[in-house]
Amino acid sequence: MTLTLEELVGERLMIGIPGTAVRDEDIRLFQDTRAAGLILYRRNFESPAQLVSLLMALEEALGRRLLVATDHEGGRVIMLGEGVTIFPDNLAVGAAGEPLFAGHQGRIEARELRRLGIDLNLGPVLDVLTDLYSPNIGIRAYGKQPDIVARYGVARIRSMQAGGLSACPKHFPGKGHSPLDAHLRLPTIDSTWAEMHATHLPPFLDAIAAGVDCVMTSHPRYPRLDPSGVPATFSRLIVEDYLRGEVGFRGVIVSDDLEMGAIGETAALGEAAVRAARAGHDLLLVCHTAAAQRTAHAALLEAYRTNALPRKALEESAARVRRLRESRSARFEGGPPRPERDGEPLAKAMATRAVTLVTPPRPELVRRLNGSVAVIVPRFSDLAVRITIERALRDEAGYVKSTFAPLGVEPETLVVGIEPTEDEIALAAEAAGRADATILFLFDAHLYPADRKLLEAVTRRARECAVVLLRDPYDAALLPPGVLGITAYGFRRCQLDAVITRLLVGLAGRS
Predict the structure, then answer these.
(1) Which of 35, 152, 267, 316 counts the most CB atoms within 10 A of its CB?
(2) How many beta carbons lie within 10 A of that of residue 195, not counting itself?
(3) What are the CA-CA distances from residue 400 to residues 164, 375, 392, 411, 441 (Å)?
(4) 119 and 24 share a domain?
(5) CATH of the domain at 447
(6) Inside any domain, residue 331
(7) The model's pTM
C-alpha cells in the first residue's frame, strides 16, 4: 500500500482530545493531521460505557482504525478509574517481594484494558531509583536494584503482551535519579555510559530482549552520554545510534509528550517535533492542545517536503507504527468492560506484603492503640482534579469510619487539606492531645512546609503517634524520635486498608 506524504506524517503522531465526547473539531483534527494514535487521559473518561462510545464514534467518523494508548502504570498514575483493578504503585509491588505478582498483574491489565479498547499501555516505568532524590519517579519505580526492576517489569510486560496489550516501558535510558520533574523543567543527569549500563539501562535491555513492542524515551539532558547537551528526546546518538543501532531494537520508539515543560525550555513545538523525528523516534506524542498538534504536523510535513528530513526514514517509521496498529484486529476484546475477579484479591495481597515499618514500634503505642484513637487524614478528594482518586476515598471520613469499625475502633477523625491551613493544623494537634493514640496519614512533608508543620504539631501533642507515609518514603527522615513510621508506598485504597490492618491487627492485636 502506497501512502501519501500526508498519510506517512500522520502515522508518526499520537494526539489527545479534550473531552468525554467526540466533537466535530476533533474529527477535523484527525482528518487534517491523519494522526495514527489517540492517547486517553482522565479528561476523556467518565465511565466504561462512555469510553466505548467515544472510541466507536471517533473511528466510525474517520473510517479507519486508530492506535489507542493510555498511561496505566498502576498506583498513582491511572487514567481509567473504573472497569479496571486499581493496583498498588510499583514500589509497593517490588517491596512485596514476589515477581509472580507482577506477572499476574500484567495478565489482568491486558484483559481489562482490551475490553476498554486500549491497544497500548504506556508503561511500566523501568526507571531505577538511587539515593538521589527523584521528584517525579519515586513510588512509580519498582526499586533501587536494577535486577529487581528488570525482573518485575519484564514479568509484567510479558503477561501484558501475551494478553494482546502492547507495553511501552519508560523512560529510556533511565531517569530514576533525575533532579527535576521533566513535566515542569529540563533536568540534567550527569551519569556516564558506564554508570548507566551498571544501573539504569539493564531493565530496558532486558525488556527489549523479552520482545517488548515499544520503548519510550526521556526528556532530560545526559551530557556525558551525548556531549552536544541536547535532551535525550533530540539526541540521535542516544535514540538512533544507540537504541536502534547498537542495541538493535526493532520495535516502535515513542517520545514522551512534546508539550512538557522540559521541551518548552529548549525548542518551540514545531522544531521539537522535527528534532525528535530526526533523533529516530517513530511515534511522537503531542498530547494536549490542538494548536500544538497542528503545529507539529505542519512542521513535520514541511521538513519532509523540503528534504530536511529523509523520506526513507519516514517510511520505515510509519511502517513500524502501522504494523503495531494492525496487529490488533478487534477494538474491544473479551466482552463488556469489567474488572477481573482475581484483580482485587491480587491487589490486596500485593499491598499487604508491601507494608513496611520504617521505625520500630513502641510497646506503649501498641497498648494505646487499644484505647481512644484520633485519625488525621488528608482530603484526597482535593487531588481528584489532577489524578484518579477512588470513589471510596473521596469521602475521607466515611472511609475511615467504615474501615476502622470492623476492627472495633470508632476514631475521632479530622480531614485536613493536602496542604493544611494553620487552623487545620491547630485542630489536628488538639485532637491528638485528646486521644490515647494518634494515626497521622502524612502527604509529602518533604515537599510541603504545611505538612511538615502538621507533623511537628501532631507529634508534639500526641501521647503516642503512628505516621503513615502516603507517597514517596522520603518523609521518614522527618519523623521525630519515638514516633512509629509505616508505609505501603502509596495511597490507593488497597494500600491504606493494608496499613490500617497492620496497625490495628498486626500490632495492637484487634480482631
Answers:
(1) 152
(2) 17
(3) 39, 8, 10, 8, 11
(4) yes
(5) 3.40.50.9100
(6) no
(7) 0.94
